[in-house]
Amino acid sequence: MKTVYVDNNATTKVAPEVLEAMLPYFTELYGNPSSMHFFGGQVQKKVNEAREQVADFLGADPSEIVFTSCGTESDNAAIFGTLDSYPEKRHFVTSRVEHPAVLNVCPYLERKGYRVTQVSVDREGHLDLDELKESLRDETALVSIMYANNETGVIFPIEEIGEMVKSKGIPFHVDAVQAAGKIPLNMKKSTIDMLSISGHKLHAPKGIGVLYIRKGTKFSPYIIGGHQERGRRGGTENVPYIIGLGKACELAKKNLEEENTRVRALRDYLEAKILEKIPNTLVNGDRYNRLPNTLSVSFEYVEGESILLLLSDLGICASSGSACTSGSLEPSHVLRAMGVPFTAAHGSIRFSLSIYNTKEEMDYIIEHLPPIIQKLRDISPFWKDYLKSKIKD
Ligand code: PLP
Question: pTM for the complete prediction?
Fold first, then answer.
């Protein structure tokens, strides 16, 4: 069966160039970068080069790059590392649509006595900037806002938010896990103090991430151990993965234009055809201010999980905007925060593309999706009720 992989916001394929760069560091070049001998020294040199590649990609200084194990660790480290540096400040601000790597830290902080503000979004997924501004106060220790949403792809006005936050002297962390490789990032011209990225979202392997920490930013190490990462993250470096991430960042910089032209055009083509061929379908989130690879679409009166399973039988890999928890299909927190109607939120599917997708693959989806939706609507009591209500009208 052919595989059409359009779930790149979940994870991406490791680029062949990335794998090739990594391989020698599992076999011949396995030294510890901290060792004094030449065998470790040559590995240290390569780790330094990877740090420079990542710094170049982010418009940062190599000394500002801290390698971590994933995006979740980077987000957690930014939050806990900052709160620990300002023990007298007990207020944390974030949004209602963050990834669980930030979202699920909120109840934990509340249990520890922190006050947490989660700023709302509107129907198109835009952050309420007035609410954000009003929430900032002297006791705010940190503001953490995602650059772009993993489900809808909606991009927040990060520099505008940063100006607001920095004008109050508050540290500013940005989860750029989905934005990296799709939006140009330049920390030299930015208000951002800390920024998280994750390797497996940009064609490096799973299990490697970065926390950018601007020079002069107060930060207490979250993982305490050796002197690695200038004392900001203990633990022997994950050498092959760091080298892979360096290469992936170099490629992502080169491929940024293709992401924003060819991949965007493929996504727009898929979206236009879906809307043309399937009635009662809506796109979730601001269609113009969105990552070039992401399409979140809701098919009214059907369940996302059923669509996914039938797509999967045809080799098409996408994801849904619901989380199957304790037997009930709850629409995702993102779609709920946006106020997407229940009938639509349940039938939401996310297609997320990469530079490895082709027009033929989009045509394959377009050929098979409409009959799947029709088949599910034919057995949906909600769809039947809807049709009856239309006849009455
Ligand atoms: N932040 C965002 C916006 C994400 O989409 C993800 C992963 O989906 C993460 C953080 C977590 O990254 P990781 O899987 O590397 O822990």
Answer: 0.96
